[in-house]
Specification:
Shape of chain A: globular
Largest sheet of chain A: 7 strands, mixed
Number of strands of chain B: 11
Shape of chain B: elongated
Structural class of chain B: alpha+beta
Oligomer: heterodimer
Strand content of chain B: 15-25%
Largest interface: A-B, 117 and 106 residues
Structural class of chain A: alpha/beta
CATH architecture of the largest domain in chain A: 3-Layer(aba) Sandwich
Helix content of chain B: 10-25%
Largest sheet of chain B: 3 strands, mixed
Distance between the termini of chain A: 28 Å
Helix content of chain A: 10-25%
Strand order of the largest sheet of chain A: 5-4-24-23-22-6-7
Chain lengths: 937, 251
């Protein structure tokens, strides 16, 4: 028995105070309890009461301390003094910075507002930044969705009225079979981990479809090592097998989808005089509006030349071309496996049906005594989305969900308020420019047909990124990845000012990185930069900072006000509406320097200098003194503001007058607000009368009327674009896009090979190359983080065994990876749990020398690398003189994962190639030793 | 040389149960451990060259990732979190020349009394699990304390008096409790799931237990138990449309 035990203090003090705010280490937006000791952040843990994370926190969230203490933090506004890209700056005052920005922007607004391109990256304040851009009057605004997952978002909205991402969630309590497609660390981060844990604890089965087995896929009960780009083919084979077996939910299809809606000879919906879609009622033998009570709809047949959607659907997917055997080789999945998974889906959905005793009333006025559920659910993200066939693949997956009757039901996939909402409840895109005036409406939206395209009379694009044109008709999130390339080419027109926020477009957030760096520094005949002025806002010394003429230094997420708004991307639960704030839990002090400001506050101050409507009153005074003031007092519609909670006298939810105490009320409540959906309204939201009434009460619908709707198996907006391609209507696509649009805009889900496969000799480039996000690192933000970079400081290219052996690779080897566009030379590593035709690496670990306050010999710069160098924003030329975007033809989503490569052994290198020369760090480098917390214990 | 408490005499055997079937390898526990312990028990967990070529930090908990490949079956990936297992027969304690390493009588937690630690590193050599790390700045031995300054801490709400790694784990793959108590949830979990000792042949009798990954179902190309589900089919009278009419009439 030892007698050396010292006396321990088992109850040391933990914090002087705990401040509850919202994380920003990724897009998940968890609630955090920030512990403060001696005025310093000492510990961050998850907020147990918060709807997103219920107390847990991921590695990124816990490492927030190191993000906040990062040596890469900017300290003052910067004005470029060296050549672009060099990183040579002088610090200037905020007044100088805002005056300079106003000096550049005021003449643009007065003469040609479209010559400002304002794109905001991983912005969580899009309802504000979009409003600012609208008041400025430029049509050129979007965030980063175009290079992220707009395929998923648009396919979801057009089909279900909501998308995967974090806009919905599986019914973790009840689902028996959960299937994920292309999900690595992705939206939304902690809830998926928590959900998987709950499924595991109950023994529910998880099937993971992904070429790479990491993270969530590693713990899945079954791993389907699919070949990249073939998910749609696989899903439609599941559809085929289920249809053939009659394992579909016909009652659900009749009641909640447009399966019975009648199509006319043009493929458009037959409608009555009120514009309501018609179905054929077998009971009365006549056409009836879809919302009539007691319908017995027909699903096949011809009625006065009209046929139900379901008949077209069944004919298409029962075709043997969709059979398991027909697709197995292309998918890399045995036919027997495809059929077994179809059977397991059917078993879970129909043999394990759930019935909840909870009466409810549908929008037809019919009362139901119970709620029926199908305990099978799905989630999908970038793996299926970031392909040129991603939109239709996501549509195919939604079709599968609907055939199984598993959307918005107990056990299935459910939406979070304010979703789901039909396309008709979303805005259309706007781009009408009037010099000196605001734009005519919100920039981004969901086109209903060719009439909503943003085209000039001569057919030229209105937007710099060519969003909402025939090249990408449904580009609902814009196309940020095309902005620099198009501005450099002056196609469709040149711009004067490129203004960006939180988007590392000179590095990992762009395709074709080397060429984009050159575009940013290219000069014209007069010696001026082709993109004349670049303003950039970031909190850290990123690669993009080096390319700015003027840098507006943002705060860290612990130093700022923000609202996690229902007007943006919700943090709700399927059973509750919720929103949240960030607030400065520590002051943004940068001793010895001018200091930093929250970007949104800087925008308000810039708006004041520019005299933007809504930001300046009649007397020329500021309407909002800062972003916090805007959050509390701005109203989008009377009573509807950025935050839905604690409105009016502090007790009103959804609607109510601005409450000057609102932010304090949020702080008192742990940084968030939450209100439950009434029990009767919690399922079948699109068709549930009680939900519709609640949504109206909360102010979710712009016109304040219920908006019940049917899920869209068949998409009429797609058909309208397709008809135009067939030659119908006033607005016609250019000839070179006609054939492509006829297939791409198919109103029923389809699969086509990724574009790149059709433009190259795949024999020359036999491998697929993709990236995944590591769970402990998010994009570029993490590399400056002393703790996280010790987990992910290097990113070898992972190579499957057959290829590894064929090339005689050994540990420590290097390889040259070549695409049709370029080559990189990089370290390789063997991986067994990998599709045999695929190589991959972690996303965005590689860094430019000199960036992020890292030493120039940091492994991120010497052995890290980007696949981006191999991916062009344009497809290989096909000799027609046209620039064909490497994007989904429906939404314009960047087709990152279409990449094809070949691999060859290479001599070991001192650094990954291409090696980009160092940028000067405006903030120096970090300390040699960190002993965080010293003296506190 | 330090002696261990009489095994039967420790009042409790506090430890972790780590579920390898559920751990997604996200490193949440690794970083939460780091941020708690760098500010609490003993010297901070230093990071040398934190922004340079070879960052080297002290971590009390790390995750290792292994792949297993078997012929004819899909490869598997296992994430394996590893920290001190608070062994009953802890060789790191008995090897300590100053008595700095010790195992607590009341709960079985193995700790280092840093004021007595001379940084000789013998304990790290003796530990078969590699669960101790010499701090690069203070030159004292660091190891998992099971958050001894959390689990009894009256300044923390009772629900949070658990190790930081357990509190933060998003997937719920980490469990904490008294493994000597047959009524404890961790004891029952180990029973139910076949929890095992890490490297039992070392004779260290670790308190921490691991729950094995459940057998994967993705290897079955055997009997098609679900085949009949799809076989009922729509190929009877009238083909698919005939089936459709009959099915619609049943609604």
């Amino acid at each position: 028995m030892s007698d050396t035990r010292p006396e321990l203090d088992l109850s040391p003090p933990v914090a002087d105070r705990i401040a509850r705010t919202t994380c920003y280490m990724c897009a998940c937006r968890c609630g955090i309890d920030v512990h403060l000791r001696d005025g310093e952040v000492s510990y961050i843990e998850g907020n147990r009461d918060h709807p997103v994370n219920r107390g847990v926190l991921c590695a990124k969230g816990s490492a927030g301390i190191m993000q906040h203490k990062s040596p890469a933090r900017l300290r003052a506004p910067l004005k470029r003094v060296g050549p672009r890209g060099s990183g040579e700056f002088e610090e200037i005052s905020w007044d100088e910075a805002l005056d300079l920005a106003a000096e550049w922007l005021a003449p643009v607004r007065e003469s040609a507002p479209e010559r400002l391109a304002f794109f905001t990256g991983r912005d969580q304040s899009q309802s504000f930044t979009g409003w600012w851009a609208q008041q400025f009057g430029t049509p050129n605004y979007a965030a980063h969705g175009g290079f992220c997952s707009v395929n998923m978002a648009a396919a979801g909205i057009y089909t279900l009225g909501g998308a995967f991402w974090e806009f919905g969630a599986p019914d973790w309590e009840r689902t028996e079979l959960f299937m994920i497609f292309g999900v690595a660390e992705d939206h939304d981060s902690n809830p998926i981990k928590m959900g998987l844990g709950r499924l595991k604890a109950r023994g529910a089965k998880v099937i993971a479809v992904n070429p790479v087995r990491t993270g969530y896929n590693a713990i899945a009960d079954e791993w389907v090592a699919i070949t990249p780009g073939t998910d749609g083919l696989f899903v439609l084979a599941l559809v085929h097998e289920l249809l053939k077996a009659g394992k579909i939910d016909l009652d659900y299809l009749c009641r909640t989808t447009n399966a019975p809606v009648l199509l006319d000879a043009d493929g458009l919906f037959a409608r009555n005089a009120d514009g309501k879609e018609l179905v054929w009622d077998r009971a009365t033998n006549r056409a009836m509006p879809f919302d009539a009570p007691d319908l017995k709809p027909a699903l096949h047949g011809s009625f006065d030349g009209l046929t139900p959607v379901f008949q077209h659907l069944a004919e298409r997917y029962l075709d043997p071309a969709h059979a398991a055997e027909a697709v197995a080789d292309r998918c890399g999945v045995p036919a027997a496996t495809i059929r077994r998974i179809a059977a397991e889906l059917a078993h879970a959905a129909f043999d394990r049906q759930i019935t909840i005793d909870r009466p409810w009333t549908d929008f037809r006025g019919q009362r139901h005594q119970t709620m029926t559920g199908r305990p099978v659910s799905f989630h999908a993200m970038r793996g299926i989305s970031a392909h040129s066939n991603g939109f239709q693949t996501a549509r195919a997956l939604h079709l599968l969900q609907l055939l199984l009757g598993s959307v918005e039901v107990p056990g299935g996939f459910r939406f979070k308020p304010p979703y789901p909402k039909p396309v008709s409840a979303h805005p259309r895109p706007h781009a009408k420019v009037t010099p000196g005036k605001p734009l005519d409406g919100p920039h981004l939206g969901y086109p209903r047909g060719p009439e909503d395209l943003l085209l000039n009379d001569d057919g030229s694009p209105k937007r710099i990124d060519k969003a909402f044109t025939w090249e990408a008709p449904m580009s609902a999130h814009g196309m940020m990845h095309m902005v620099i390339s198009n501005a450099h080419a002056g196609d469709p027109y040149p711009i004067d000012v490129l203004f960006m926020y939180m988007a590392n477009m000179a590095w990992n957030s762009t395709m074709n990185t080397g060429a984009v760096m050159k575009m940013l520094t290219d000069t014209d005949d007069s010696g001026g930069y082709r993109i004349p002025k670049i303003i950039y806002s970031d909190a850290y010394s990123s690669e993009m900072v080096a390319y700015a003429d003027l840098v507006l230094p943002d705060t860290t997420y612990l130093e700022r006000h923000d609202c996690i708004s229902l007007l943006d991307r919700p943090i709700c639960e399927p059973d509750a509406a919720a929103d949240a704030i960030r607030w400065p839990v520590v002051e943004p002090e940068r001793p010895g320097h001018e200091g930093v400001r929250g970007f949104q506050t800087a925008l308000i101050q810039l708006g004041l200098r520019l005299g933007l409507p809504g930001m300046v009153d009649a007397g020329g005074n500021a309407v909002y003194k800062d972003y916090a003031d805007y959050i509390v007092n701005h109203q989008r519609r009377p009573g509807i503001g950025p935050l839905a909670g604690f409105r009016g006298d502090g007790t009103e939810a959804g609607r109510g007058a601005p409450n000057p105490d609102q932010i304090e009320a949020y702080k008192r409540n742990g940084g968030f607000w939450l209100q439950h959906i009434p029990e009767e309204a919690q399922f079948y939201k699109p068709t549930n009368a009680a939900y519709q009434d609640w949504a109206v009460k909360m102010g979710f619908y712009t016109d304040d009327l219920p908006a019940p709707y049917l899920f869209q198996l068949y998409s009429e907006p797609l058909r309208k674009f397709q008809r135009a391609a067939e030659g119908h209507g006033e607005r016609q696509p250019p000839e070179h896009l006609r054939e492509r649009l006829k297939t791409a805009m198919d109103p029923l889900p389809r699969w086509d090979p990724p574009f790149e496969d059709t433009r190259i000799d795949t024999g020359d480039f036999p491998l697929h190359a993709i990236t995944q996000r590591p769970a402990a690192m998010y994009h570029s933000w993490g590399s400056q983080n002393a703790w996280l970079r010790q987990i992910h400081g290097v990113n070898p290219l992972y190579v499957p065994r057959d290829t590894w052996e064929a090339h005689g690779f050994a540990d420590g080897d290097w390889a040259t990876l070549t695409s049709v566009h370029g080559s990189i030379t990089i370290p390789v590593a063997l991986m067994e749990a990998l599709n045999p035709n695929t190589v991959w690496t972690w996303n965005a670990i590689g860094k430019r020398r000199g960036a992020w306050a890292l030493d120039e010999d940091a492994p991120e710069a010497t052995r890290g690398f980007l696949l981006n160098h191999l991916i062009h924003e344009l497809l290989p030329p096909k000799g027609d003189g046209l620039r064909w975007s490497n994007s989904d033809p429906v939404t314009g989503q960047a087709a990152w994962y279409d990449l094809r490569v070949r691999i060859e052994k290479a001599p070991a290198q001192a650094a990954s190639q291409p090696e980009i020369p160092a940028q000067v760090s405006p903030v120096g480098t970090g300390p040699a030793v960190l002993t965080f917390g010293k003296g506190r214990a | 040389m330090t002696s261990l408490p009489d095994r039967t005499a420790t009042d409790k055997s506090l430890g972790l149960v780590i579920d390898l079937d559920t751990c997604v390898g996200c490193h949440a526990c690794v970083i939460s451990c780091k941020e708690w312990n760098t500010s609490n028990y003993g010297a901070p967990l230093a990071d040398l060259d934190p922004y340079g070529a070879e960052p080297l930090g002290t971590f009390l908990n790390r995750i290792h990732t292994f792949e297993t490949a078997q012929p004819g079956k899909p490869a598997q990936v296992v994430h394996f979190p590893k920290s001190c297992l608070h062994c009953e027969d802890a060789p790191c304690v008995t090897v300590c020349p100053t008595g700095a390493s010790y195992k607590r009588q009341d709960d079985g937690i193995v700790l280092v009394n840093e004021s007595d630690c001379i940084g000789c590193g013998l304990c790290a050599w003796a530990c078969p699990y590699g669960a101790r790390e010499m701090d690069g700045a203070e030159k004292v031995m660091k190891k998992c304390t099971l958050c001894v300054d959390r689990i009894y801490n009256e300044n923390i709400p009772e629900v949070d008096r658990i190790p930081s790694c357990v509190r933060t784990c998003p997937a719920g793959a980490r469990h904490f409790g008294d493994l000597s108590d047959p009524d404890s949830s961790v004891f029952k979990l180990v029973e139910a799931r076949g929890g095992f000792d890490l490297m039992p042949e070392q004779g260290t009798k670790p308190v921490n237990k691991y729950l094995p990954p459940r057998p994967k179902t993705d290897t079955s190309d055997g009997p098609d138990v679900l085949g009949p589900l799809l076989a009922e089919g729509t190929e009877g009278a009238g083909g698919f449309l005939g089936w459709l009419d009959r099915a619609l009439d049943r609604i």
